[in-house]
Amino acid sequence: MSSRYEGFPFKLRSAVWEITLACCFNCAYCGSGGGKARPDELTLSECVNIAEQMRRMGMRRVSLIGGEVFMRPDWREITGALTGRGIKVCIITNGFMMTKDIVDSLKELRIESVAVSVDGPPEAHDRYRQKGSYERAFNTIRTLLDAGIPVSVISALRADNYRLLPEFYETLKDYGIFAWQIQACSPMGNADRNNIDVKFDPSFVTAFVASVKDSAPFAVGVADNIGYYSPEEGGIRGTEGFCFSGCGAGLTSVGIDSLGNVRGCESMYDDAFNEGNLRKRSLEDIWTDPEAFSYNRRFTPELLEGGCSGCKYGDICAGGCRSYNYFTTGRLYRNPLCKRGNP
Q1: pTM for this model (two decimals)
Q2: Per-residue pLDDT for 342 more than 70?
Q3: What is the band of 78 on the pLDDT scale with cuts at 50, 70, 90?
Q4: What's the average model confidence in pLDDT over 161-181?
Q5: What are the beta bridge partners of residue 255?
Q6: What is the pLDDT of residues 215-241, one digit of tens each?
């Protein structure tokens, strides 16, 4: 690795990598609009080269997403290019097309974990996906657990399902998952095109997590797009005592799409946030560009707007999740899900 990166103040530790847009679903609220693979997605050799670049930069963990990861025929080779280089890999899946062959491959590839997306009880989950997808998702969870593969569940909250969290918890607690992540569904991609109502009461969510976190048989916490610094902070992010310390996009993490476009976060699904393309520039070159990721690297509390402006936690929280802010308010430094007041 060049001396330029060795002396660079921001070290890249994790990535969310969309290896294909192909999916067996076309969910009504999918932020990336998954369904069909793009015609010019990264080749296997390009993906292996990117994995090597990640290794040289000291990447610790990669989350592989789609689309649906298992729809890409060479997902095994891409995964192996990462795990074979000592990079921990989590695969995020809708759980619809799990097979014994896939499970055997996951074990052979030494996957760290698999996260299955389930948005609540059967009706709430199937509403915007496919009928029967809830049942298939839980069949996958059982299959993975029986194979000794660690499993977590990710739930995306909308107006129609957030009050079902207590009911869904009663189902989840009987499974041997290790974590449940609760996140806000962002009004981008299909959710925006289909006018899905994604508004919900963050106070209800944080209060629920606080009420079950001590007794839950797994870690339960909210994602970075729900917050912040309410009385429950320090106990609602899956790890006791952990507090939100600002968006990490472009500071320690990066997002890569199936064409090789690099963003600070793969939830920042807009061309406005593209910092470069891996077919034209190396990951190191993009990462160490002094003009890149300026929305976070050059953040100062003076940039905060609305209710975030003047908040005593503003210099730490930095206004919360950049992606959710952008797609809900059109602004980067104004967060609508802060329990301290909706700006």
Answers
A1: 0.95
A2: no
A3: very high
A4: 97
A5: 16, 263
A6: 999 999 999 999 888 889 999 998 888
